Amino acid sequence: MLSNFKQGLRGTERLNQQGAFQGVPSAPAVPRGAQQPRTTQPSPRTTRVATRVARVPTEPRVDAEKDLTSPLHTFEASTLDMPTGRDVESISDTEEWKALQEHVKEINTTHLRDLLRDEGRCMNLIKESEGIYCDLSRQRITNKTSELLMKLANKANLKDKIEAMFSGEHINSTEDRAALHVATRARRDQSIVVDGRDVVPDVWEVLDKIKDFSNKVRSGEWKGVTGKPLKNVVAIGIGGSFLGPLFVHTALRTEPIAAMESEGRTLRFLANVDPIDVARALKDMNPEETLVVVVSKTFTTAETMLNARTVRKWLIAQLGPDAVAKHMVAVSTNLKLVKEFGIDPENAFGFWDWVGGRYSVCSAVGMLPLALEYGFDLMEEFLLGANSIDDHFRLMPLEDNLPVLLGLMSVWNVSFLGYPARAILPYCQALSKLAPHIQQVSMESNGKGVDINGHPLPFESGEIDSGEPGTNGQHSFYQLIHQGRVVPCDFIGIVRSQQSVYLKGEIVSNHDELMSNFFAQADALAYDKPPEQLRSENVPDFLIPHKTFTGNRPSISIMLPACTARTVGQILALYEHRVAVQGFIWGINSFDQWGVELGKVLASKVRTTMHQSRTKSRTVSITDGFNYSTTRMMNKYLEGKTQMLYPEGHDTFPVDSLP
Ligand code: F6P
């Protein structure tokens, strides 16, 4: 590990001589067998260093100073001048940040049309690694920007923060936890230590259990209570217990191997507590052939637990109480609550508090439902894909490190150029759920108001993410990104499509047609179409302002060789780590989510009042503690439903008994 660390420092030295991103030959991908052995225990020194990454340091900072040969020395030395406690320096107070702010003036005199003429620049900004082609040349950056961004990364101790994450340090300081989702896709021969324990055997114990169970269900050895094989799965969960698995499922459905493996099987998700979602998830499902997987890290999430109780009733109503043992299994870190719910702990698949919900798709959260649908072996390919990017992220020098470069582009766009949003635009229908998943990964992680030490951020963190697959997005919101606001775009293209259509008489295949748009859109955003050009095209004067394009709108183009289980794992890990890089630079905790709590507490108060109002037939009043607006709105709502199902509820499936 230490020599890997040195590798990063050597990259930094090179940077200082030559300027970042340029003149640095891409390091070859690290061959699997040739990787550095992972340490089994974090050294006391490592622990101390990484703790400092996450918390205000309190202990004397002398160790690395004394040992000038330590590879940790550079990191320690750069943090030594950081004030502690309430005086802790924000990254925005540093010379490196200010230099970038100053540099914006220079960038504002450039235009992408001209920057794209410089082939040397473009060459330096095109990176290829792990089979992923990544073109940053349509970012509003010059070689100098790259150099300044690398200096910022070094100032933020990025390399050391990455290492702290991989070393199982408690970088999620407000919850006093590691953020070690990388361990959920560790290879069996790896060793990753959290709190003194190598967790890789634990991870594989659960994966082996998933393999065994999914094989039994898929082969029909595990039968339902009436003796029928279980060919349907309903996965109940929300947020991180839903979006990642949905993304992967959507990505694989039409992939030929995955399609073959899932022949005759159905996987559905039930996330929203809206009874419409219940109705849709259960529609035409034969309970005799249905396995329900309740996925919840905490096993307390209100929506998930109500949906779980709803579906449990649905099963019992039709198959009797014994159905639960054969038709319901769980994924959770809270095995006590799983048992209390009535699911046999033998049928529970655990994970750990060091896996954040939104980072949990590679744990049993995603692996169980997806292995049931596609078979464990294919899903292992998905894990290996994610693992390949983990290795890349940990070992590659910063200037060739894809998640680092992508993260730095985001920081540049958000914090210096002032573009708060990002569009995720896969030119691949199979990736249609990437944007919703990354919305949670990115916005729940980096939408913070304070830094990791609890001090208000002097700048805004996070990006507003959204997106749709091309070409659908083109016929929807691209007007705004071409002529309205500047929204940096991620274009994601695929070389070999999962499906092939090429009609006789057409000049291109359907996939070529799709990809023609992928190539065209990035340039359409970058280049301008000025009034002179329009005039030369005989555009009437009154239309010229409407048809003018200012261009200079940044984008990133990413190309994957195919959309397979492996590359889906790669793209997932690429975005996860990009988000971490942004948080590490901004100096925030990307692994907690306190902002989601307040709404849950208020909803609980509303729920109690609603119950009283229903059962005691009374209206809500200001004395219930709500403001005028909410009180009035609730009464309007309750009045409109007085005829329905109340005061006594009764079980209805699906919700079809409303008058
Ligand atoms: O409310 C947000 C959240 O806590 C997410 O972070 C999480 O992914 C989701 O709820 C679901 O939580 P659980 O898996 O515990 O049900």
Task: Describe, in plain words, how this protein is organized in 3D.
GO terms for molecular function: carbohydrate derivative binding; glucose-6-phosphate isomerase activity; monosaccharide binding. Pfam families: PGI. Pathway: Carbohydrate degradation; glycolysis; D-glyceraldehyde 3-phosphate and glycerone phosphate from D-glucose: step 2/4. Belongs to the GPI family. By secondary structure, the protein is an alpha/beta fold. The chain has two domains: 36-108 and 119-177 and 396-591, Rossmann fold (3-Layer(aba) Sandwich), CATH 3.40.50.10490; 199-382, 3-Layer(aba) Sandwich (Rossmann fold), CATH 3.40.50.10490. 46% of the residues lie in helices and 9% in strands. A hairpin with a 2-residue loop joins β3 (193-194) and β4 (197-198). Mean pLDDT is 87; it is low at 1-20, 22-86 and 655-659. 6-O-phosphono-beta-D-fructofuranose (F6P) binds at residues 238-241, 296-298, 301, 304, 357-358, 444, 593, 596.
Question: What are the key terms here?
Answer:
6-stranded mixed beta sheet, 5-stranded parallel beta sheet, binds 6-O-phosphono-beta-D-fructofuranose, Rossmann fold, single chain, alpha/beta
Terminal CA distance: 66 Å
Looking at the chains present, what oligomeric state does this protein adopt? single chain
Bound molecules: 6-O-phosphono-beta-D-fructofuranose
Q: Helix/strand/pairing class, anyone?
A: alpha/beta
Quick overview of this protein structure:
The chain is α/β, with parallel strands linked by helices and 659 residues long.
List the helices and strands and how they pair.
Elements: H1 2-18, H2 44-54, H3 63-66, H4 73-80, H5 95-107, H6 112-115, H7 119-124, E1 126-129, E2 132-135, H8 143-155, H9 158-166, E3 193-194, E4 197-198, H10 200-219, E5 232-236, H11 243-252, H12 256-261, E6 266-270, H13 275-282, E7 290-295, H14 302-319, H15 323-327, E8 328-332, H16 335-341, E9 348-350, H17 364-374, H18 376-395, H19 402-416, E10 421-426, H20 434-446, E11 464-466, H21 478-483, E12 489-496, H22 510-526, H23 531-536, H24 544-547, E13 555-562, H25 565-586, H26 597-616, H27 628-639
Helix pairs in contact: 2-9, 5-8, 10-17, 11-17, 11-20, 17-18, 18-25, 19-25, 20-25
Bound molecules: 6-O-phosphono-beta-D-fructofuranose (F6P).
6-O-phosphono-beta-D-fructofuranose (F6P) binds at residues 238-241, 296-298, 301, 304, 357-358, 444, 593, 596.
